[in-house]
Amino acid sequence: MTDQPTRDPISGLHIYELSHPWGHGTPIWPGDADIMIRRGVYHARDGVLSQHITANMQTSTHVNAPINMIQGGADVAQLPLDHFFGNGIVLDVPKGRWELVMAADLDAAGGRVRDGDMVFICTGWHARYSDSMEYFGEAPGLDVSAAQWLIDRKVKLVGVDTAAVDHPMATSLAAHRGGPLIRRLPKHYQNMTGRDAKADFPRWMPAHRLLLAAGVPTIENAGGQLQALAGKRATFHAMPWRFERGDGCIVRLVAFIDADGSCQIESGRGPDTDSQGDLTCQVN
């Protein structure tokens, strides 16, 4: 995918795709059932196409609601709409295999984070998105200090370009909660590092649980043109379904940059006025 955005000819907005594709062959969390899509009716027989889908909603680029890990937490439908639209920043935090994103990394990259921001962390790992042990089992993850840093800055949503907010060794992919779902992963980690995965990461999903307990929804598997926005502020849109009791939901994540400073939001005054809108979408 090119790093060049789509330009809306009316508003002048530059629109960036930050989602991975979804459909047949989408990489899924190891151990989950595959996505199943079948045609209920189709053109040759019925003159119309309609499809039936069976899938975990936490596939490809998706949002996680607090109820995903916090009993009594808000579900997808209960989260305020403004959690999924607004200004924010992509923090450029390049990381390699099994590295941790620390609070100090966010300090170095995130001097412009503001209260109420949507924050996306670009480790570069989205470029490895695939059905592979490398993408799922060798990725970097957030340290608890990074999760607390984001909470302290009152951000309203956190996105990552990895399959999980936490380090793989702190998930069920390794020796936690019925794992290892990737059976060879703990031994692979020990062979490559000389350390024991469970000793290094004794707690299950600590960064993710901390964020969700604070009411901060998360997006995993951000991708697309994310690297083109690294270090930049933008306006983001990632609306999930109005999914009651939903723990997660696939989203189409996009970003807008008002490069010309000419975007106008409609005033809502109705068709009998000459107003073309009176709020400029300034993105700093």
Describe this structure in a few short sentences.
The chain has 284 residues and is α/β, with parallel strands linked by helices. The chain is built from seven helices and 16 strands. Helix content is 16%, strand content 21%.
Describe the structure.
With 284 residues, the chain is α/β, with parallel strands linked by helices. The chain has seven helices and 16 strands. A ten-stranded mixed sheet has the order 1-2-14-12-6-8-10-11-5-13, with helices on one face. β1 and β2 form a beta hairpin. The model is unreliable at 275-280 (pLDDT under 50).
Topology record:
Elements: E1 6-7, E2 14-17, E3 36-41, H1 43-46, E4 50-54, E5 62-64, E6 85-92, E7 100-101, H2 103-109, E8 118-122, H3 133-137, E9 141-142, H4 144-152, E10 157-160, H5 185-193, H6 197-200, H7 206-213, E11 218-220, E12 233-237, E13 248-250, E14 254-257, E15 264-265, E16 279-280
Parallel strand pairs: 6-8, 7-9, 8-10, 10-11
Antiparallel strand pairs: 1-2, 2-14, 3-4, 5-11, 5-13, 6-12, 12-14, 15-16
Helix pairs in contact: 2-4, 4-7
Which features characterize this protein?
16 strands, 16% helix, globular, 21% strand, alpha/beta, 284 residues
**Cα Rg:** 20 Å
The parts where pLDDT drops under 50 for at least 5 residues are 275-280
- What is the overall pLDDT average? 93
Question: Major β-sheet, in short?
Answer: 10 strands, mixed
DSSP strand count: 16
End-to-end Cα distance, whole Å, is 26 Å
Hey, roughly how much beta strand do the residues contain? Answer: 15-25%
Structural class based on helices, strands and sheet pairing: alpha/beta
Question: What strand line-up does the widest sheet have?
Answer: 1-2-14-12-6-8-10-11-5-13
Roughly what percent helix?
Answer: 10-25%
Task: Determine the number of helices (DSSP H or I, runs of at least 4 residues).
Answer: 7
Helix-strand topology string: EEEHEEEEHEHEHEHHHEEEEEE
Shape: globular
